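User: Can you predict the 3D structure for this chain?
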Amino acid sequence: MDEKKLFYHSLVFPAFFLFALWFIKLTELGLALSFVRFGIFPLSWKGIAGIFFSPFIHADFNHLTDNSLPLFFLLLTLFYFYRKIAYKIFILLFFLPGIIVWFIGRPSYHIGASSIIYGLAFFIFLSGMLRRNRSLMAISLLVSFLYGSMVWGLLPYDYKISWEGHLGGALTGIILALLYKDEGPEPDIYQFEEENTPFLPDTMEVEFKEESSEKPFQT
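Assistant: Here is the predicted structure, written as structure tokens:
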């Protein structure tokens, strides 16, 4: 698959997922309903359903708007560079942070797709460093630059924000980057890694040929 076709193919799922988020929010608004009760409520049987539904639910349009751009960008990166394992990574990032929140969260409803954003950001950043791929490393630096302040979201500085969800996403992203460190784009091979023999000046090569009675191996 050429790069242009791969890029367009990688747009499909991120666009579909964002469409679902906005459709649900508009439906909630149009029906004058609140879907907050479908969020994660820690250590409660009624809150288990939130593990499946909470990423689709947002408090208001500001909450949804703030999540939309980074979510789209990070999902596009995932599906472009990790197309063979992209769905597996997404599903794990969708459910595992929610399970963590159910165990460690404060007794309130936890909603929003921020846990997926944190998981994707940490996965892409660490994986890019581990893979030694220049494209991924550049994206890793971009992610850290654009979302570097995300680290503060891991701390309980605002009672309205589910830092537990952010922490669950970050931990999941780090674990997945380590587990799938051999998956993804191939590491860039630099010139010094391709050479099998040390560099010899021309004079040394001449002397070697004169003294040796056998032909050297070609590399």
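The two ends are 31 Å apart (CA to CA). The first helix runs from residue 3 to 30.
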